[in-house]
UniProtKB/TrEMBL annotation:
Keyword tRNA-binding: no
Record's protein name: Carbon monoxide dehydrogenase medium chain
InterPro entries for the chain: CO_DH_flav_C, CO_DH_flav_C_dom_sf, Diverse_Substr_Oxidored, FAD-bd_PCMH, FAD-bd_PCMH-like_sf, FAD-bd_PCMH_sub1, FAD-bd_PCMH_sub2, Mopterin_DH_FAD-bd
PROSITE patterns membership: FAD_PCMH
Domain FAD-binding PCMH-type, chain residue ranges per copy: 1-181
Manganese listed as a keyword: no
Amino acid sequence: MFAKQFDYKKASSVSDAVQLLSNNDGAKILAGGHSLIPMMKLRLAQPPMLIDIGGLEEMRGISVENGNLRIGALTTHAEIADSHDVKDAAGILWEAAYGIGDPQVRNRGTIGGNVAHADPATDLPTVLTVMDAKFVIQGQKGMLGGGSRVVSADEFFLGPYETALGENEILTSIEMPVLAANQHAEYAKMAHPATSFAVVGAGVVVTVDDSTCTAARVAVGGFVPKPTRGPSVEQALVGKELTAENIAAATDLIENDLGSDAFGDIFASAEYRQAMAAIELKHAIFHATGLAHHE
Ligand SMILES: Cc1cc2nc3c(=O)[nH]c(=O)nc-3n(C[C@H](O)[C@H](O)[C@H](O)COP(=O)(O)OP(=O)(O)OC[C@H]3O[C@@H](n4cnc5c(N)ncnc54)[C@H](O)[C@@H]3O)c2cc1C
């Protein structure tokens, strides 16, 4: 099917893009187009105008400064998967980016488009939630009057295809703390064989001091409306040595944190996905702590 007719504008800067959004009701930002164009072809989205931000160099790039990793929203999954800076600072994100879709999707799809779209089946919302990432958002009038505001991952994802981004706002970059030497992070997913979308995804960052877990952030995604933290699991890990038995006992508790809104579809039922959440979480912590290794 062809998309409904639409106008096209190329933004010359972030502020130009914000201005164009504000002046044109229903207009949509176009980044890599790998979520938006399929939606338009299926007529699930019919924006009257697309505002192409693809040429905005100020929204690209990866840097590490003062213990902080910053990634421009237009940075592609392939650029993240190729980056030594990301590998060293946040190996969990580097590995997850490599596991997205196929080369075409990774070459065009952007980190900003991925999270702004907030498809529950994608990987990066879960990974960025456990990394405690911050989302830098540009609008006309921000909290500080300068037009920009910062939202934490726990507050950014609101539900399926719904984020804290306002109608006339643009996500410009994502920032996260560089992992410390005593922090271990991993993302594990049961991938859909045709697309690599997450049937179930699980992310974890554990801090280990003197063989004891002193802090933990875990989240699951792929089958829930938004990345879902596992406070029961986190509490059960902290204060314990991360042995196989302790990890298995803690990850089994994820069902307490899931609520009742798990999704199922023709590929996998909600019950199956819920059961797999504990397995993928255990898998992630085993890899993070060296109890299991990739081939
Ligand atoms: C075949 C296929 C397989 C895939 N497999 C996976 C997978 O395994 N794992 C995974 O995580 N994802 C997967 N994806 C999703 C892919 O990662 C996303 O489609 C892609 O990253 C979206 O980014 P984009 O730049 O193409 O966004 P676009 O399609 O251009 O935009 C998506 C939405 O976000 C908005 N938007 C984009 N950028 C911004 C911004 N900076 N500020 C505000 N709003 C913005 C747009 O207006 C639009 O509503 C797959 C997609 C396809 C087509």
